[in-house]
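Q: Is it fine to ask for two folds in a single conversation?
A: Yes, each is treated on its own. Send the first.
Q: Here.
A: Result:
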Amino acid sequence: MKLVVIGIGDCGGNIAAEFVRLGSRARAESGVEVLVRSYAINDDLASLNALKKAGDKLLTIQMPAAPVSSRESEAGAELMRANGDRIIATMRAGEFFEADAFMLVASSGGCVGSGGISILARKLKERYVNKPVYALIVLPLAAEANVPTCVYNTALCLKSIDKTADAVFLFDNEKVMSEASIKSAAANDALNREIVAPFFDLLRASEKVDPKFLGTSNIGIGDIVQSLNGWTAIGYGKAQISSGGLSLFKRGDHFESKGEETIKAMEAMSSALSHFSILCRMEDARKALYLLCVPGKNANINMARSVGNRMRELTNNGEVRGGDFYGVKDYAAVTLIASRITYLDKVKDYYERASIQVEELKQKETPPL
């Protein structure tokens, strides 16, 4: 699947740059293009200039400055309403026809990104009717989660993008952050890499790759599009696999070896489930997708079948698509997507807290009788 990635605001721009690096890696390792172009949109010229080192696949677009006195997402929305058409005109629209989907990226807690993302999504959907528009929303860190403006912006951003985008990938900053990110000197860069990394195998496996990478059941672009709807979580997990594994087509007394390899696939799946981008219950997902990546010499039919059966169990026989891909060397990796999720504690919590804030503000503004 080829994407046009559009990052809005500081967070969105940094992640858009990270998608450029992911695209370069896919080209180097699999010989496929998964990124048509990345754009970073911001009102901060210094932030945009810092992103240019990502390469020529990233283009930056400066917006007029948001009102200094306002940190609320309505200001970002108004800014995008006034400038969205000009921004789209600045983009290389001819390249949009090469893309299979748009991916818009923003933080939910700020001003420019949280307010602007749903406005830009709506404008793109109006112009490119048959092109899916997905959103990747990064929720606030714990230190920001109790700031009233941040809570309000997040609730408003989630409410508006849910009504606009075809699917919304939610990333809980606290959940995604790993020990490696925390210890890293460049914690934000490490965190951005972890946010983008789960998309790598999925995007390249859906493109026309060298036949040596093809599994027994291939995931196509249509499988991804049909699997994405509404609130969505993505997870990725790995498990080291022995180098002396056996081919799918070899015969002999190798049941024990094949059983061990199947266990490795299930270990990778368990890791992916524990590393979902946001805490969710699989039984609340109406759609799901899985991708198993293993070395071709280690593959056997039971590996993908076991992952698929487990997904159907977890989703109570929901709509599950999946496949396998032989594009790795010494490990088993599983990418999982839970989509059309009907209930998320995190989203409900932001809606409730924002509602309480609005009521309290109304009471303060109402003069006494």
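Q: Second one now.
A: Result:
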Amino acid sequence: MKSLLLLLLAALLPAQDDPAAAAARAMREGRFADAERLYRALIKQIPQEPRLQLNLALALHSGKKYADANLAFAQFLKTNPPPGPVHLVAGLSLLKANQPCQAAPILEKAKRWQASEQVLTELADAYSACQRYPQAGAAYTEAAAKATANAGRLKRAAARAYWLARDYPAARPLFTALRPTFSNDPEFLYEFGDTLARTEGAEAGLPLLERSVELAPTLTPARGALGRALVEAGRHADAIPHLTAAAPADATLLMPLSRAYKATGRVEDAARTERQYRNSLAPQN
């Protein structure tokens, strides 16, 4: 990334411009506060030169002053430059400032410049953080196809993104291929088990969900998914402790819990739990 910043900087202003040369030298030497000061002074002298805003943005980004860098990048991007490395750095700066939804369209332009593993991964991260899970899954998958060392991690991220998008048919083959690598990862087993339960039926998902809970008894969503699958499989007594543990965090589990109570003869508990579920649907004042 440092070489990318210097490449951008080197192309911007002529070397014979002494203040600009001093600022560029400060950047090369890692004196980002000095570079910021020099570029701010240059902007006051030549406010009509948009490339100075880019130089300032690079100095601020390098100095980890991401909020200020984003303002300077925004000023430069108003000039509508062609897709290029500046869009990658500007998108990364927005991600560093926890603004993934703003980063995504800028990183989409970076992808038009270069659909590299790095660009695709950063774009996928932005989509995921912005809860655009179908797009995240596609971008992670595309990044994995270009990756070497990171291919497994990127496929794992793609599987999770598709699972979060409830695109279980897309998630299932990825989970299946990754299972040997993540066979003792409780979150992976939970997500894969939930996927199988939703696509192939409760019995298909139960072994993975049970193993997930065995490895991580405090993984509440996994216990909820296991309880739901046990109810669907007719194992109502086994489902009750898992649903009881998970329902405080997920009110939708109250109905399968009520069914489990009713099936095991606990009629009063079934009625009470159903009332709790209906109360959870009432508007909150």
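Q: Anything structural to flag on that second result?
A: Two points. The radius of gyration is 26 Å. The mean pLDDT is 93.
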